[in-house]
């Protein structure tokens, strides 16, 4: 059974599946397109001389543009690939979709308290402090109109500094002292009596920041289940014909101005253009014929006197064709059941 499975791995390396150049019946190898020239001495048919490098493969290695030039010959690799079931299936059941991903940047302004952490995307800022006074006392008081004799205030803020008179401090304002102002005076023995206003003094510091607003316009997300065929990132081809090119653009920078400065923004990419191959809804691959062929070979494979026999059946133009096949096997070395071993203590 193991020999049969190994043999099947050779058998089903068909031209339609692997773009092969052809297969030689009666031998356990396949001449396939693209065999490496430097491996020619290692890829020999065990039953004959020669290497697996095809003329098409050599021509393609010299110049990849040589393969389409053979389109006039139905036996050449170009037609083998183009007429394969996989190629036709893609053309019949798939559609090409193109899309773009773009990174967008803009500068917006955000207002926060100076005591708050810097906002996300912070670029630069300016600050402004506003002062407020909340009067909590207005009456005659025996204080001689002297700041040092007026209870409950800080003489440093007497007379009271400039500020907006409000009934209550705004949110975020911080108390920084108490001051007083004198409006009238009555002479008395000892300390005079003064008409006094006492204030709680507040200051509100606000930060006005330039903030980076960054977003990605992604028109490709709806094709996540499709096959990526082509990709160009900032003018550099990073994917071609379903394969990565190994190229990657360097990060690049853009300058953008805000209310409080001009900033340089650097990113790995700014624009991505993609082409996808998407399978049409409801389409599916049918491998029932391959499954039937595998089942037939596995159930009929037998080994006898250094040869392997099996019954094959292939679907040709809609009809099943049966055949009996015989392949020679390489000699199998006999391995003794037991072997001597030394134990070291």
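Sequence proposed for the structure above (345 residues):
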């Amino acid at each position: 059974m193991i020999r049969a499975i190994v043999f099947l791995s050779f058998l089903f390396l068909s031209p339609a599946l692997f773009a092969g150049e052809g297969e030689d019946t009666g031998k356990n190898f396949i001449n396939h397109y693209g065999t490496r020239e430097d491996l020619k001495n290692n890829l020999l048919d065990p039953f004959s001389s020669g290497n697996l490098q095809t003329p098409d493969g050599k021509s393609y290695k010299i110049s990849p543009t040589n393969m389409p030039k053979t389109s006039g010959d139905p036996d050449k690799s170009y037609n083998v690939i183009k007429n394969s079931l996989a190629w036709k299936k893609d053309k019949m059941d798939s559609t090409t979709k193109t899309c773009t991903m773009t990174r967008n940047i803009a500068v917006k302004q955000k207002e926060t308290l100076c005591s708050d952490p810097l906002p996300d995307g912070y670029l630069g800022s300016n600050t402004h402090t506003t002062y407020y006074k909340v009067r909590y006392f207005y009456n005659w008081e025996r204080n001689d109109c002297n700041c040092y004799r007026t209870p409950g205030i800080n003489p440093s803020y007497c007379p009271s500094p400039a500020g907006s008179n409000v009934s209550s401090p705004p949110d975020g304002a911080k108390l920084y002292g108490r001051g007083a102002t004198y409006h009238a005076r009555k002479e008395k023995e000892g300390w005079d009596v003064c008409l006094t206003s006492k204030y709680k003094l507040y200051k509100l510091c606000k930060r006005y920041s330039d903030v980076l607003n960054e977003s990605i316009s992604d028109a490709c997300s709806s094709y996540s289940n499709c096959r990526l065929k082509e990709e160009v990132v900032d003018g550099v081809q990073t994917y071609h014909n379903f394969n990565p090119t190994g190229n990657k653009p360097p990060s690049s920078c853009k300058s953008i101005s805000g209310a409080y400065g001009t900033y340089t923004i650097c990113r790995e990419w700014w624009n991505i253009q993609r082409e996808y191959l998407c399978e049409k809804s409801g389409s599916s691959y049918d491998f029932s014929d391959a499954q039937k062929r595998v089942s037939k070979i596995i159930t009929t494979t037998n080994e006898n006197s250094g040869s392997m026999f099996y019954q094959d059946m292939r679907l040709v133009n809609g009809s099943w064709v049966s055949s009996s096949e015989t392949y020679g096997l390489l000699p199998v070395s006999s391995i003794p059941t037991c072997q001597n071993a030394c134990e070291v203590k």
